[in-house]
Amino acid sequence: SRFAKVIDLAFSQATPYIPKTKAEVHIVGNPVRQELLQKLPPADAKRTLGFDPQKPLVLIWGGSQGSTRINEFILENLEQFLLKFQLLHQVGKANYDEYKKQCNFVTKNYSPVLLNNYKYVPYLDDMNRALDAADVVISRAGAGAIFETATKGKPSILIPYPEAAYDHQQENARAYAQTGAAVVLEEENLLPSVVLAQIEKIVQDPALYKRMSGAAQDFAQPEAAKTIAGHILELWK
Fold this sequence. Notes:
Blueprint: E1 6-9, E2 24-27, H1 42-48, E3 57-61, H2 68-76, H3 78-82, E4 86-90, H4 96-106, H5 112-115, E5 118-121, H6 127-133, E6 136-139, H7 143-151, E7 156-158, H8 168-177, E8 182-184, H9 192-203, H10 206-219, H11 224-236
Parallel strand pairs: 1-2, 3-4, 3-6, 4-5, 6-7, 7-8
Helix pairs in contact: 1-6, 7-10
C-alpha cells in the first residue's frame, strides 16, 4: 500500500489496517454481478423456482463451495424448518452426493407437502432469482455474499466462517450488522431454537423487515465496479 496512489476498500472498518500512506483512500464497496441490479418481485421469483409465492422462503448459502457445518445443521433440524418455512439450500458441488444420500434417509417419512418446502442444489446457477425469491438469507460472511445480499435489500443472518484468514469474516459480519441489515450468529451458537426465532422475528414484523431491508440497500454499493474502473482509468491518463 505504501506504493499506491489510490486505495479502494469495501468496508470503512478496513481503513485502520492500511499503514500510513499518501494514497487517496476510498470506500467503494465490493463489485457485484450486473444482473443482480435487475429485480423481480419475490412472489414471481418464487414461482419461477417452483415455490409457493405466499410462504416465507429462506435462502441458505454457504459460499460458492457450500458449508459442511451449515449443511449438517440444516439436515439435523430440517423438519422444524420445513414446518414453518420454505428453504432453498446451496449445499456445494463437492458435498452434493453425500448430502443427497443423507437427505433421502432423513426425509423418507416426510409428507409430500413438507417435501415441497425444500429444494437443495449443488450450486445456484441463478443467484439473481434466488436472492429475489428469498425473504431472509442465511449465509457465511464473505464480502461477496454480503454485498450481493445487500444489493437485493434482503435481511440476513450471518454465520462467519471461524477459520477464515485473519478472522476477516467476523470483521465483515460485525461491520455489516452495525448497519442494522443483519444478525450475526457464531457457529457455536448455531441452535435451531435461536435460528428459527431470528427468522420468525424478521418475517413476522413488517416494520423490522422494512428497516433491515432499507439498511441493506443503504449499505450496498451497486456502482462499485464502475467506481473502481474510473479510478484505474484516471491513473492511466
